[in-house]
Amino acid sequence: MKPCMGLAWVVLTLFAQFGWCDDSPTFVDLSLMVNESYPCTWPEDFPPVQIKHFRHIGRASAYNVDILTVDGNTGTQIDVPPHSIPRPESGLPGADPLGDMFTDKVPAWQLCGEACVIDVQNLLNKAPDGHSPLIGTDRVQQWEQQHRRLGAGDVVLMRSGYTDRYYRPFPEGRRFLADPLANMAPAWPGPDPPCMDALGKQGVKHVGLDSPSIGPRPNLGEPTHLAGLKHGMIFTEGATGLQTLPPTGALYCSMGPRYTQAPYGEARAFAIMPGPLSQRLIKSAREHHAVDLSVVLSPDLPVVSPGIGIGNHRHPFIKVDFAYAKGTGAYHHTHMMDSHVGTHLVPPAYALPSPGFSNDEYSPEVQAWLAEYEREFGPRGTSDTTTEQVPIQQTCGPARVIDVRHLVGSTQPKSWPQSPAITMADIARAEQQQGPLKAGDVVIFHTGHVDRHFRPLPDGSGCWKDPLNGRAEGWPAPGPEVIAGLAAKGIRCVATDAPTLGGVDPRRALMTYWILGTKGMVGVEFLTQVGQIPKNAYFLFAPIKIQGCHGGPGRAIALFD
After folding, report:
1. Does 274 share its domain with 346?
2. Which of 31, 67, 195, 479 could pair covalently with 545 via S-S, beta carbons 3.0-4.6 A apart?
């Protein structure tokens, strides 16, 4: 028996022993926690991450509302070609069409692939202070001798254990980035340029590692980036927990918001352990069978609620340039935004107060709505479940698209602001056509609203502003009775290609969110291209892992056979 065959037998035995081949998929979160007390941003001249709890549930607000300031070099993150490659029209040395492949242009299939984990733990701290141990082509060749040749559709993950050991709250967290940069401790392991170039020539399009940067210190940072990015690669930096993955067989995903003109961006990395589902999705990614369901985030697009009337808007999406990169002719930039910007998560704690909350703290209007709600649906729950506590497997599952476009135009102008009501009859009709809903399915309402109205402002006022203020019909939306009905069928995640699940009527919207959280369900809002999801597709959504966040921008895609 060849050594590689023996190893494969051992791995398959372990899969069976630990249930990794079970029909029930096992998800593993591979992302760093984003928190102001952790070393999650680059310590040299880059803005720190900030989360401001702008509104709390009480008299002034029925929701918990956050404002985020997040630089793309935060926590687990993705680098894309414009990180090092100038745009083609720049005239700079090395300019190339890949210089236009910003985070919003990366194809959905490239975010996923088969995890091929190369163990380089023996390199950790094997370098002088301020220097990185180098991962060379010999480590790749050794892995290939044990397993198979690497190529297109693989995500090569280099596991050193660096983030697992050193990503700690301050002051201990200085060892993660600040001390190596100050030549006070050895830096993280990183691949040298020949290693990256060789992987690129073999067709590998995604490389990740559990170091804060793929670039070795002190002077190979940019050469290593460029060696891979020139092949159209993307990188995951700052992954963690890679020891949970086998050498091959798991589906790996790393997904982040689609920021316009962003050369890098924060991300959420996760894996699905080996089994029937991972095999199927790996094949889909290899064949480029993927649909990107996330809207692009840009200051000129209607990506955040303008509110009803004047003075009720959420924080606008703002891109802030702060440092000029001569090599690429572009600025580094950070983003300021509401946590419900663009394609985002709705966790239970968005609308549910914490345990111990007194309903007398609501405004009189909301107290009246609550009394009405509880008469019909029972006690409204409480929750402290913010974004980072929602398991990724809850926001992923078989995509069950329910077409409700027939409801568009069903209301009269005199009733506006009003959203056409999605009813249980619509659910029943879909089940008759597609088969019954099953526990674990992700129900996705296809309204067509975002596809019709998502365009630069002021033309894009039909997306949010006009419906909220009664100048146009609202988008179709489910009420609390529909959410209760879906919960009874075992549905734990509901999504929509409209700005919100709640619709434009504040009373009905709040009741929808109350019951969503009370039933332990979550929402994914502001999808696009839902009509392109084929039958038997699998929905994947992952928000940024921001501690204490009551929303969370992220990326949604669908993989299909």
Report:
1. no
2. 31
- Is residue 274, in this structure, part of any structural domain at all? yes
CB 336 within 8 A of CB 68: yes
DSSP tally for the chain: helices H, then strands E? 13, 27
Residues 253 and 127 in one domain: yes
Judge if pTM exceeds 0.90. Answer: yes
Q: Which residues, at least 6 apart from 318, have a Cβ–Cβ distance to it below 8 Å?
A: 299, 335, 336, 337
Closest CA to 479 of 412, 427, 531: 427
Q: Which element (helix H / strand E) includes 365?
A: helix 364-377
Q: Which domain holds residue 448?
A: 331-559
For residue 516, being part of any structural domain is answered with yes
463: CATH? 3.50.30.50
Task: Give dist(CA 40, CA 46) in Å, integer.
Answer: 11
| Domain match, 105 and 203 both | yes
Check whether the bond before 86 is cis (ω within 30° of 0): no
pLDDT tier at 141 (50, 70, 90 boundaries)?
A: very high
Percent of the chain with pLDDT over 70: 96
> Token digits for 35?
């928190």
1 occurs within a structural domain: no
Asked whether the predicted pLDDT for residue 9 surpasses 80, the reply is: no
pLDDT tens-digit map of 112-123: 999 999 999 999
CA distance 77 to 70: 11
Question: Which residue, 222, 228, 218, is CA-closest to 137?
Answer: 228
- Bridge partners (DSSP) of residue 237 are 77
In a domain, 319, yes or no: no
